[in-house]
Amino acid sequence: MSIHPSSSAPVPSLAAPSARVAAVVRHAVATGLLGEATPVAGFIDTDGVRASVAALHEAFPGVPAVLHTFAAKASSLVPVLRLLARCGMGCEVASPGELRLALDAGFAPSVIVLDSPAKTRDEIRRALAVGVAINADNLDEVARIAALRPADAVSAIGLRVNPQVGGGAIGAMSTATATSKFGVALRDPGARERVISAFAAHPWLTRLHAHVGSQGCSLELIAAGIGETYRLAEEINARLGRRQVTGLDIGGGLPVNFADDETRPTFAAYAAALRSAVPGLFDGRYELVTEFGRSLLAKNGFIGALVEYAKEAGGRRVALTHAGAQTATRTVFMPEAWPLRVGAFDAEGRPKGGPPVVQDIAGPCCFAGDVVAHARPLPELRAGDFVVLYDTGAYYFSTPWAYNSLPRPAVYGFRLAGTGGDGEPEVRFAPVRDAQSLESVSAESGLAHADALVDPGN
After folding, report:
1. Is the bond preceding 265 in cis, omega lying within 30 degrees of 0?
2. Read out DSSP for 123-135?
């Protein structure tokens, strides 16, 4: 089945995510999408994605000009990107590869924004030739763009600034700290004046961009960073005596609730926080650009994995599954910052019952720390059962880690389409990415050059 979304299609009323997941796991096991031959796979709820996009658009009613872009790094899968394009999203990209994926997915260049912090000259030339917007990371990059920019360029050009309003709960995800690698640090001595001078020297510099961070950043912190950027735009325009800054790229970063099914904070709460902190942001004088990723996709996807073995170690039950650091990399290495809910399912893909047993949910990677959940009380897992890692629709299975040369898992989109004759929900699957073959693993590991280092000439 092919899924052909449309921005004008009605947004369905959805059952609770966990209930939808249970139906999908059951059908995935019954149809062989999960099982002995395919022990791990990712699943994307396409109706859930549509509903999340609709909620984002509805949070900005009456705003004259707003472009909502999706951060491609959160799900670098062409079918997912095409779904988002059909839902009326633009795309934020941060590498030549992501730009290629966005174009292949069907995003018009005019709704693509390039944000890489280390753009090469070739990358800039390509972006300018295609006509995508560019946010320069620093003033040296502004000078590089000036040297490469043709007179007839149509790309909107902005400058990323670091408002230095502080970090959130996860340092690695905070991009507005005093020493962040991103943007021009506004509170450094002389930086503000240098930014204003750059805008004065380059009339084609028409946007400001700021992003405070993502998971772990509060709405108040996000709003504070956007407020600083808005005030800088007002100052630039006042100092130059013209409305040169016409757009504000306010980034994304809405955190995701990984504790239960509820979506919080909502896009509506985010917009309300901005209206309270920066009321002038919504009066139509500035085109707004957003760059959400995780908050659109995380709760609309999950990973299903086979339990290959279950054993006891030191009085602890350990379930060895096929979902570990190769798909849940952040959770394995930073479990306190990135905890995941785990669901237990039997060999037929039905939710398991029974008294909870404290057990570790471990992955297949060959190092001791490959554990996605420690001491988790769940119905006792046995070989042949399945586990589900909830809320993993962003980043997890779309950007796998190739540790141990483990193949990339297959990914499927799904929709629930009414009830079948047996009273069970009917689930329709669509392929998103095929499971990686072992031939592909070998090819990517240099098979074509196998003799290069043993050739007598080397």
Report:
1. yes
2. HHHHHHHHT-EEE
298 near 256, Cβ under 8 Å? yes
What digits encode the pLDDT tens for the residues 178-209?
778 888 989 999 999 999 999 999 999 999 99
Alpha helices (H) in 241-353, listed in sequence order: 267-277, 294-297, 329-333
Helix axes 139-148, 121-130, angle to 10 degrees: 60
Q: What is the pLDDT of residue 454?
A: 93
Q: Are 418 and 428 in contact (CB under 8 A)?
A: no
**Cα separation, 129 vs 60, whole angstroms:** 32
Judged against a pLDDT cut of 50, whether residue 4 lies above it is answered with: no
Q: What is the DSSP letter of 437?
A: P
The pairing of beta strand 425-433 with beta strand 410-419: antiparallel
Q: Which stretches of 322-437 are DSSP H helices? A: 329-333
With CA atoms as reference, report the closest residue to 94 among 65, 130, 60, 132. 132
DSSP state of 229: H
Grade residue 177 by pLDDT with cuts at 50, 70 and 90: confident
Question: Could you tell me which of 303, 279, 281, 285 has the C-alpha nearest to residue 391?
Answer: 303
Radius of gyration in angstroms for the set of CA atoms belonging to the chain, rounded to a whole number: 24
Tell how strand 205-209 and strand 247-249 pair up. Answer: parallel
Q: Do the beta carbons of residue 228 and residue 210 sit within 8 Å?
A: yes
Q: Which tokens go with 268?
A: 């509506």
- Output the pTM of the full model: 0.93
The dihedral sign for the CA sequence 219, 224, 228, 230: positive
The strand pairing partners of 292, in sequence order, are: 70
On the 0-12 / 13-18 / 19+ scale of CB atoms within 10 A, 103 is middle
CB distance 397 to 333 below 8 Å: no
How many angstroms separate the CA atoms of 133 and 127, rounded? Answer: 7
State the Cα–Cα distance between residues 399 and 76, nearest whole angstrom.
Answer: 7
* Separation CA 14–CA 11 (nearest Å): 9
168 phi/psi in degrees, rounded to 5: -95, -155
Burial class (CB in 10 A: 0-12, 13-18, 19+), 431: middle
Centroid of chain to Cα 81: 11
Q: What tokens appear for 311 in the block?
A: 């054993």
